[in-house]
Write a structure and sequence with these properties.
The complex is a heterodimer of chains A (514) and B (490). Chain A has 514 residues and is α/β, with parallel strands linked by helices. Chain A has helices at 8-17, 22-40, 48-63, 105-112, 155-162, 179-184, 219-229, 278-293, 309-324, 342-353, 356-369, 375-398, 420-424, 431-436, 481-495, and strands at 43-46, 74-78, 116-121, 168-173, 188-191, 211-216, 264-268, 297-301, 401-405, 440-449, 467-475. In chain A, helix 2 runs antiparallel to helix 3, helix 9 packs across helix 11 (356-369) and helix 9 packs across helix 12 (375-398). Classes of the chains: A alpha/beta (514), B alpha+beta (490). Chain A binds chain B through residues 80-82, 88, 90, 95, 98, 100-102, 104, 199-204, 206-208, 234-238, 319-320, 322-323, 326-329, 331-333, 342-343, 346, 366, 369-371, 374, 378, and chain B through 39, 42-51, 78, 80, 82, 84, 87-90, 141, 147, 149, 276, 278-280, 283-286.
Amino acid sequence: MNFEKLSAAEVAGKVCTGEVSAREVTDAMLHHVDAIDPKVGAYLTHLHKLARECADGVDARVAAGEKLPLAGVPVAVKDNMCLTGTRTTCGSKILEHWISPYTATAVQRVLDAGGIPIGKSNMDEFAMGSSCENSALGVSRNPYDLDRVPGGSSGGSASAVAAYEAAIGFGSDTGGSIREPAAFCNLVGFKPTYGRVSRYGLIAFASSLDQIGPLTRTVEDAALAYDAMGGHDFMDSTSIDRPLETTADALRSKNAEAPLRGVRVGLVREFSTEKLDAEIDAIYKKAYKDLEALGAEIVEVGLPTAEYGLATYYLIAPAECSSNLARFDGVRYGLRVDAEDVGGMYEATRAVGFGPEVKRRILIGTYALSTGYYDAYYVRAQKARTLIANDFKKAFADCDIIACPAASSPAFGFNAKSDPYSMYLMDYYTIPMSLAGLPALSVPCGWVGGSVLRDAPAGAPQDDKKPLPMGLQLCAPLFEERKLLQAAYAYEQATHHAKQHEPRVIPSAVEGPR
Amino acid sequence: MNYEAVIGIECHVELKTASKMFCGCPNEFGGEPNTKVCPVCLALPGSLPVPNRIAIEHMIRAGLAFEAEIPVFSKFDRKNYFYPDMPKDYQISQFDMPLTQGGTVRYWLEDGTIKECRLTRIHLEEDTGKSTHAGSGDGRIAGSDYSLIDFNRAGVPLMECVSEPDMRSAKEAVGYLEMLKRTFVQLGVSDVKMEEGSLRCDANVSIHPVGASEYGTKTEIKNMNSFRSVERAIESEIARQIAVVESGKKVEQETRGWDEAKGITHSMRSKEKAHDYRYFPDPDLVPLEVSRDLVEKIRKELPELPGTRFERYTKDYGFNIKQTNQLLDDVSLAVYFDATVQATRIASNGSGNPQQAMNFVLGDLSRLANESNIGVAESKVTPGHLAELIGLVDAKTINSKIAKELLERMWAGEGSPKAIVEKESLAQTSDTGAIEKFVDEVLAAHPDVVADYKAGKLNVAGFLVGQVMKASKGKANPAMVQDLVKQKLG
């Protein structure tokens, strides 16, 4: 049996009923990973031994009668999350050999729920990037087209889940790092409300934006994962101290015929897809029609300040990162490049240890916080952030859920986005939600041929036969995770876009429904 | 020309809390290096700070003691700069919204003059680790072979008190610091042990002609390790600045280090190279909202502060400054003293006997404490028992000699002096008949001395009085003995 293709819900169900053991699932999964990961490159570190130990532990707990919501579920842990005794690199040379001596709260909660850590997944260095190409330690590929990127920064987790190397991938989303790779890899990528999932043990990029969430193949799995990882944590002052509203048990609408009856779906005027490729425009128009067909009332809303999201984000996030990444100084841990004096050691260590994108953002952020520029850049960006959040508040007076693209294009080829700004634009639709701290997700919404990338720069793959997935982004008001996942579930169950194509990297894959 | 100094003090005080400012590690001085550390205070990747509630309450306590404003909103900011013993390479501090703003420190000088110094603010931050540089000879990083870092201190809560430039002499600066110390110890917010580094201060010093309204260029003096060195350093710096100005030159704005051995300040770095700390609100910590209920609760629980005690001791009790300082410089002694006075008040059902209490506390009790190295407040002599003793003396039940002996026995743990007196009938006797009997015996036993007295050597009477006291085992009322001896010698 192909255990690796089971959803998290299916694995947990079978393990809890004793139909299979967590160990069997894990062994099968590790076998699959061994076979396929050399092609995909999802993982930076494999955790075979730990996975088997955890599986045996889960089997013992299940045997003792414990009901574990994620019993035996294979999990990919993004490599910016600490897991005791494992290498936690952040995709950076500066932490290439760093072993975390403690475990992130969200990771621990998933393990406590029965999850099995299969490996530490690749990522853009310090989560800065949208393609995983900024990883200093490995190349992750899109399982639907190995010549294309999986997206980023949670690219490794996206590759892993898409290629059945895990059922749940841990992602962290600062400006779109869960939603964009989910869209690129035919996955559900869910970023909860800021503060809903503890950041303790998540290596910070931009503290006021970073949020952990799951990448999964189904909405139900996203809900299960979220229920397990979320909730208040004393170790994170920014985590929200109010009870977690569970979602997995509330996905199904009572109205089977029109599950979205009574839900007002807002289409954002400023996010019109008219100017995008006709094929992509058609996909989103169809998605909105499908939502309407499910009973939703479609309304138009405005986010007039959303266009400043990118500029705002690229001041606030670098400002925070310039400070967050100061600790990587060669003194206590990680890479150290010796020099004549301590100042020289700092410079040499950071010059060698950080890649160009990380350096670029540290420089931008340092500049934005400097005396004389602080008010013009950082303070102004914070004001813009408030305006953007207020726009969402106003929009949510007229609607319950906002629907828009997750990304303006499907996965692109390696080296296609050679200038930083074109890469930054990949997060155009996801950044405003991050700035407002809102819960948002990407759910598969259709397929396009590679031909839509005909305007892509030289080097882009020309094979337009391979279908590539697109993602619909849904966003809800703060703490409305349940409403958000309900809408996504209704849409998924009605459309089944994700199941239309198998990833090409799977040996048995044949074109057709999976 | 006559110059006047203008002095402001910034001091860092480690707060007394069970755990560090942003993690659960113990806040204790010393220990094996790097044994009181965790992912948070080592700034391991992914760790996050969680503020210490007690430290925040200590700040409110300190602010209220000096009548500072406690704003409703406060926040933590990051002060960014690289230093090896600062694990995050930024310090969590407070920039523009400190926990307390303004306030006034009222202190007194050696002659009892009351002075005031305004506080700018008191803000909360975290301490750094400690570096030890080896091989450079002078312990400085320049020229060292290697450096060792102990992070036990990293993350210890630290309050920074910034004063306005209201002090005009080194003595005033010391008076101000002593007042801060007394108050913080009294409040229980810090131990204020300069030798353990739990109080560290920098002084900003400038001079200007007496009466001028504009301040001169200031220098900042660092590395002062005791109140005495603060006094010496400021005096030396004032003298240096006057010499600079008198020679027609200008005082440079700079940081100067105090050299204890040489007794001079030396230039450390000029202000032009000052850091841009790039302060910004710490996104890992939510803004603080200080509830008015908490402020009022803390205000109500404030103990009697040194300033009020000072008034009481000097004005109500009439103690001199030396006695007052002796009591106030050791809070436990002042508390003990007050408890004793209170007990004498209850026992006498009147105003009590502060003078006698002070005599005992600063006299015999302090002597016993010094001899045994046990604090008065920790001794076996309770304020209640001391009050009993004072009562016995006041009622002339015992004389001062017996009182002294009793106190030693109480120190040794014998408990209530009243009980001892009753049990051993140590009560002083004023029975004329009994005393007369002793006097007659003594006079009869020393005819030669009596003869001397009669021959005009009047000072031998003291010897005879002593002999009578001895014969009565000290119980005879000394005044009556004296009278009777003189009377008998006629």
